[in-house]
Specification:
This protein is elongated. About 70% of the residues lie in helices and about 5% in strands. It has about 110 residues and is mainly alpha-helical. A hairpin with a 2-residue loop joins β1 and β2 (about 75). A two-stranded antiparallel sheet has the order 1-2.
Length: about 110
């Protein structure tokens, strides 16, 4: 049961990537830009976590569903995977929302022209 959280994180990340592929929202729209944004977002949040750990704000909790593997003091293996999921999920939701809003605006213009 020690890998359950990591497995769920990887599965949900996979689901986000499947949505991305289906609707060509982020990586399947522009892989280079998406990779840069993802790397920058992941680096930002990892630095944020390191600063929180150094400041004594963030602590690693004990959970039976976690692997127990730590990459650094108070930084479990699951944390960067979660942050990767967070960045990808945010960008898929953002790009999907932009597309929906653009279609709604386009629909209004079409109706007004009639």
């Amino acid at each position: 049961m020690g890998f359950l959280y990591l497995a769920v994180l990887l599965a949900t990340l996979g689901c986000m990537l499947l949505l991305d592929r289906r609707f060509r929202l982020f990586f399947w729209r522009d892989a280079v830009s998406a990779s840069v944004v993802t790397a920058a977002g992941l680096a930002f949040f990892l630095l944020w976590d390191v600063a929180g750990i150094a400041g004594g704000i963030f602590f690693r909790g004990e959970a039976a569903i976690a692997t127990g593997i730590v990459l650094a003091p108070e930084l479990p293996l699951e944390e960067p995977v979660f942050l990767l999921f967070l960045v990808v999920c945010t960008m898929v939701v953002y790009t999907g929302s932009v597309r929906i809003l653009a279609r709604m605006r386009h629909g209004r213009r079409t109706e007004e022209a009639s």
